[in-house]
């Protein structure tokens, strides 16, 4: 049983808590008081949706109270043993939880987990709830508004019979698909001759065996040829190496003989009488000295280049610093000029004096303007007074109300005109003073602007003078480094001159000594050549015949040709065997496929037989279940109807199933059963459908035992309403534990054990 509903920021209810009791809970309220939104909240709390939300007539954002400033809504429902809480958040996924009375989490926070828990616990899902338990406004008789096909589908769905129909339809589809598959497989199987296929496989196996035997013989011969070729190749390689060595020795012999002749000629032209061996140490010494001089010269050249690069860098930096120094002098010259201008300006008064002078002039301008305005105001008053004196018809003064004759009037007019002339002169004088003061102020302001401009220009003076000092220091440092570098360059130049002189002397001595070295080297070379020539003559005593090599080459080439022939023949046999094996594999696969096809046909035939039996069983079960459910519905409806219907015209009610429809019928007083759609009035139709809904709620959702009626008095007369109140009070508790009635009908309050009045 639902004991409490709490709403926060839900539609027209910013904050609402309702307590419910067993029996009838009547929610009273006028249009716009939020009655229907409470029923929607009950549905949403139980299943996370309601009819209008499911049909998308209402969006999640519409569930939040308008103008609240909150981003979520909260719906909580308390049962006897647990509580449901759902949080609506249009910006992200909604949350839901179920907790027991101790606060322990039973399901959630995923809404799907909560829905699964309720479906398992209450044995009611959202679809069954919306079709049976929750009757929306003006939809109690919705079963009678549908056409026969839709009505049969809806009632079958409520009773769960549609599952049998869906299963039976699926069974028929599967039977047809199996029949089609069997026909296709049988047609494929009939298109092949299995005996011909077996003969082809046998012939291919025979061919493969024969070709493999032939290929084996070719491989044996090929291995023998390769062995001979390998042996011949080794002998040929050794023979070639010996012949090549012989030819190289012959060539070397010719070269040595020629070289010895050249040495004899060259030695005759050199002074061979000198003691060459005593000069060799000096030659090595000179060579070492020349090497060291070359290193020293190269190092000095490198040092010279480095110093020259440094000098160039110092020259570049010095030029940049001189240029920067010149720019700084120009800037400081400008500042000096500005300072002289400032001194000249200060002869006319300092900046502070001029500022105070402007303030004084502004005060004088304001004073002159005030005096001028006072004069103008007094002139206007005098003008009015003169006009009044001229045109007044009474003998009284318009100003002081004293007695006034013509002579005195003229005297007053003259007096006031004279005063007006004086005031006009004063006003003009004050205006001239204001203009003069403005010109003076403008001149002073120009001087102040000049002061400001010069002061701004004088601000960087200290920084510029510091930079000038730093640049001067840098120029002095650079010039010192440049002088030192120039001095080092001069020393290096002198060093290079000395090195070049020593190098020239030692090189000349080396050339002279080298001539004697050459004699020594030639003599040694002559000795080595004679010794080597003797060795070659010994080696060339046994020569190889080129004809013998040519015959061995021909024999080797013949072995290569035969190896290639056998290799090609072996590859051809292998390709032929692979082709036969591939064809054999294809035929064997086809044979296996046909065998599998036959097994598939036998299996499908067995399945077809089973599905036909299963379809018959489904039909029988569907009809039996329909009969039992309708019998149970009719039993409850007939009991309710006796109390629900207040007249004697229709003493009983039942639901009858036909092949294509469900017909709700009433028994007439003459014992004939007539259709509610055809013969009942609007109120009778509504009561009949109410009885049907109560029966469905009792049978299909016994664990929830709940009925929700939204404005159930639609089309009922006062007598029928009274009877409905009596039924709700006395009869419904026998079938339904808890009823929620939403209405604006005050008389229905009599039916409630718990009355909730909503304020608009």
CATH topological fold name of the domain at 2-159 and 645-757? Rossmann fold
> What form results from the Cα inertia axes?
flat
Oligomeric composition of the shown chains: single chain
Q: What is the terminal-to-terminal distance?
A: 28 Å
Structure characterization notes:
- This protein has 760 residues and is an alpha/beta fold.
- Among the domains are: 2-159 and 645-757, P-loop containing nucleotide triphosphate hydrolases (Rossmann fold); 353-456, Orthogonal Bundle (Helix Hairpins), CATH 1.10.287.510.
- It is 71% helix and 10% strand.
- The chain has 16 helices and 14 strands.
- It has helices at 35-47, 51-54, 111-122, 126-133, 142-145, 148-159, 162-190, 194-268, 276-346, 351-391, 406-458, 461-539, 546-644, 676-679, 682-700, 718-735, and strands spanning 2-10, 13-19, 23-28, 73-79, 82-88, 95-100, 105-107, 134-135, 652-657, 662-667, 673-675, 706-710, 738-743, 754-757.
- The strands form 3 sheets. Strands 2-1-4-5-6-7 form a 6-stranded antiparallel beta sheet. Strands 8-12-13-3-14 form a 5-stranded parallel beta sheet, with helices on both faces.
- Strand 4 and strand 5 form a beta hairpin.
- The chain is flat.
């Amino acid at each position: 049983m639902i004991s409490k509903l709490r709403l926060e920021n839900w539609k027209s209810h910013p904050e609402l808590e309702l307590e419910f009791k067993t029996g009838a809970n009547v929610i009273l309220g006028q249009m716009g008081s939020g009655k229907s939104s409470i029923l929607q909240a009950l549905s949403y709390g139980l299943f996370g949706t309601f009819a209008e939300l499911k049909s998308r007539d209402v969006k999640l954002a519409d569930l939040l109270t308008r103008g609240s400033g909150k981003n979520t809504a909260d719906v909580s429902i308390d049962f006897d043993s647990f509580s449901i809480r759902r949080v609506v958040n249009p910006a992200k996924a909604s949350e839901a939880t179920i907790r027991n009375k101790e606060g322990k989490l039973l399901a959630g926070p995923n809404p799907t987990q909560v829905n699964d828990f309720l479906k398992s616990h209450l044995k009611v899902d959202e679809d069954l709830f919306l079709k049976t338990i929750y009757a929306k406004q003006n939809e109690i008789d919705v079963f009678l508004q549908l056409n026969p096909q839709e009505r049969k589908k809806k009632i079958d769905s409520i009773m769960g019979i549609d599952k049998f129909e869906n299963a039976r339809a699926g069974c028929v589809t599967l039977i047809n698909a199996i029949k089609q598959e069997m026909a296709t497989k049988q047609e494929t199987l009939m298109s092949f001759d299995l005996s011909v296929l077996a003969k082809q496989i046998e012939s291919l196996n025979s061919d493969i065996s024969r070709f493999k035997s032939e290929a084996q013989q070719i491989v044996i011969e090929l291995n023998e040829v390769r062995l001979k070729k390998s042996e011949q190749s080794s002998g040929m390689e050794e023979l070639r190496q010996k012949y090549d060595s012989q030819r190289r020795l012959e060539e070397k012999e010719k070269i040595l003989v020629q070289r010895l002749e050249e040495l004899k000629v060259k030695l005759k032209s050199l002074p061979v009488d000198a003691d060459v061996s005593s000069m060799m140490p000096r030659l090595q010494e000179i060579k070492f000295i020349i090497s060291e001089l070359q290193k020293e010269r190269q190092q000095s050249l490198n040092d010279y280049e480095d110093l020259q690069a440094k000098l160039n860098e110092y020259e570049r930096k010095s030029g940049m610093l001189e240029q920067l120094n010149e720019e700084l002098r120009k800037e400081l010259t400008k500042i000096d000029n500005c300072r002289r201008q400032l001194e000249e300006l200060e002869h006319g008064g300092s900046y502070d004096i001029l500022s105070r002078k402007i303030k004084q002039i502004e005060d004088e301008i304001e004073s002159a303007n005030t005096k001028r305005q006072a004069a103008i105001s007094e002139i206007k008053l005098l003008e009015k007074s003169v006009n009044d004196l001229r045109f007044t018809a009474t003998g009284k003064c318009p100003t002081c109300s004293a007695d006034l004759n013509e002579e005195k009037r003229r005297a007053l007019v003259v007096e006031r005109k004279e005063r007006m002339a004086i005031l006009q002169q004063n006003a003009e004088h004050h205006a001239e003073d204001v203009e003069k003061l403005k010109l003076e102020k403008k001149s002073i302001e120009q001087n102040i602007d000049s002061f400001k401009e010069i002061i701004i220009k004088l601000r960087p003076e200290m920084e510029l003078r510091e930079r000038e000092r730093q640049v001067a220091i840098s120029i002095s440092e650079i010039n010192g480094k440049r002088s030192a570098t120039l001095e080092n360059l001069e020393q290096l130049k002198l060093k290079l001159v000395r090195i070049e002189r020593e190098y020239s002397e030692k090189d000349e001595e080396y050339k002279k000594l080298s001539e004697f070295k050459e004699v020594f080297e030639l003599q040694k070379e002559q000795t080595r050549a004679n010794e080597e020539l003797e060795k070659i003559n010994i080696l060339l005593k046994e020569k190889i015949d080129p004809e013998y090599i040519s015959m061995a080459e021909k024999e080797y080439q013949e072995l290569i040709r035969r190896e290639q022939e056998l290799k090609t023949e072996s590859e051809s046999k292998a390709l032929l065997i692979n082709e036969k094996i591939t064809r054999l594999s294809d035929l064997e696969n086809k044979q296996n496929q046909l065998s599998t096809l036959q097994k598939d046909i036998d299996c499908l035939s067995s399945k077809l037989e089973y599905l036909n039996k299963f379809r018959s069983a489904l039909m029988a079960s569907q009809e039996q279940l329909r009969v039992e459910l309708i019998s149970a519905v009719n039993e409850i409806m007939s009991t309710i109807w006796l109390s629900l219907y207040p007249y004697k015209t229709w003493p009983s009610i039942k639901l009858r199933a036909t092949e294509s429809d469900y017909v709700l019928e009433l028994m007439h007083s003459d014992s004939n059963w007539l259709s509610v759609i055809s013969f009942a009035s609007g109120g009778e139709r509504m009561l009949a459908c109410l009885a049907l809904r109560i029966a469905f709620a009792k049978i299909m959702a016994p664990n929830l035992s709940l009925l929700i009626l939204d404005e159930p008095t639609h089309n009922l007369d006062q007598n029928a309403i009274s009877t409905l109140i009596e039924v709700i009070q006395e009869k419904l508790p026998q079938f339904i534990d808890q009823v929620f009635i939403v209405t604006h009908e005050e008389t229905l309050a009599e039916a409630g054990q718990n009355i909730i009045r909503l304020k608009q």
